[in-house]
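Problem: given the chain below (393 residues), write out its structure.
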Amino acid sequence: MPPPTTPSPLSLSPLSPLSPFSSLPAPSAPSTRPSPLLLALGGYAATRLLGLLVLAAAAAASGKDGFHRLSGRWDSVWYARIAEHGYGYQVTLPNGDVHSDLAFFPLLPALERALSAVSPLDAAGAGLLVSWAASLAAAWGIFRCGEHVVSARAGVVLAVLWGAYPTAFVQSMAYTETLFTASAAWSLYAVLRGRWVLAGLLCALAGLTRPTAAALIAALGITAAVTLVRERRLPARTVAGVLLAPLGWLGYVTYVGVREGRWSAYFDVQAAWGNSIDGGVALARFVLGLPRPAGLGLGAALALLAWLVALCVRQRQPLPLLVYTVGVVLLSLVGAAYFGSRPRLMMPAFGLLLPPAAALARLRARAAAPVLAGLATASAAYGAFTLLGSGPP
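Solution.
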């Protein structure tokens, strides 16, 4: 997706470049250094390839099938089943809870179905291909956002950091994280560049992917509202983008309501999966119920998260990016879902990584590279350990 050429009057001014590496080479001395975009995509791909290699080595050593865990277990199975048979499947647990496939949004299984229909891949293999392609699109969009807000060098580091996120192994699975993050990153970049209609369309796609799209919808709506207050006018393209933004999310929620015969059906389905919004009560109970050392460690992790959010504010990130980031974090914390899933649910909030990306971008390459390599190695090791163990929460 080529970047638009007209900057938006609605976005905040980007921060000044943080490094001389962001300057262009003199015309008289063409540079052989790869472009920042290639560095971002190459660095991101290298982190994910490292994760797959470590998984393959660990699986071979333990006699397990690592590849099967990427597309044939956990949520991937639900998406593949929807792709093959449509909606209508449910499982009744021993305690009487009913888990329905209506909890899963339709874009990924629709793409799996379409791709498997025109290729030799089955739905599970198609899901992997979609996820891997979307991961590169997400890294590209994340790079563009980092480049716009800070500098090209920071954008490169930001894309690599996202690939080295602790639960980044999910980015290599037939899950929706990469598809959603790609839609969200490009939607935010479109807003920053004043392309509101495109932003709304991409937000609608995100709304067909994950319920977390509510944070992206809020980002576009709040940005438009602040613009209206400041400028006492709202261009037609901004209104169109805001109106388009919630159509995907609302469309699927409405579909479930009509199918089940009650307007609250989608929320009832999610509640049966344990995903209701409780304002953080479940999180507080979980933390308080831990042994003291574990509770202190988790408290420190939550404090680090709060510090990163504060750094995003101090960095003066553009309003849509900031609202989106905070929204994803809040939605991940106020639900009653299993605690272990929360880091994965926060992964699309790539704005959290922008302050450390800006700090690393100020370092020389020989100082920043070992840090990124160490983070990628740790992420790969954790991913192999998790996939070959209990699996992704």
